[in-house]
Write the structure tokens for this entry.
Amino acid sequence: MSHISVAVEYALHCLIYLVDWPHNATSPSARDLAELRKLPVKYVAGIMTKLAKAGVIVSVEGVRGGIRLARPPEQISFLDVITAVDGKRPVFDCRGVREHCALFDGEAPAFATSGICSIHAVMLEGEARMKDVFRAKTLRDMADQAAKRVPSEFRAEGRAWLLDRGRNRA
């Protein structure tokens, strides 16, 4: 089971189109982004609601409305998106297994229960390092990396598709 949901992946695939979106153009809607990426529209709309509540995007109502980044892309980290979409859930949930042992005869001794479990300590360290990576990587980084891989013609085609949708809505 994945700790980071598919909703986060969908969010990031949609948000990449908002990086460097022209200020004078009608912003894409959740429907536009979902249909471009062939994702379920209702699901993407729910994700965008979470991103708006967390201050990652702003949503403008109305015919000319749409979605824009709430801050510059270099100020929106992967951790911001993950937390907005999935909430703050730990990577590891200690079940207190160390307290249960046939040799304890019903009551665990202090050596078995005091302090943090050594397994949990490693898990906490791993989670902290993972969050450091997600905190350090931004939407700008993602867009710049994609720009190196994705042909400029395809990127322009995607933008034109969204711009045309916005013009047709307006």
Observations:
- The radius of gyration is 21 Å.
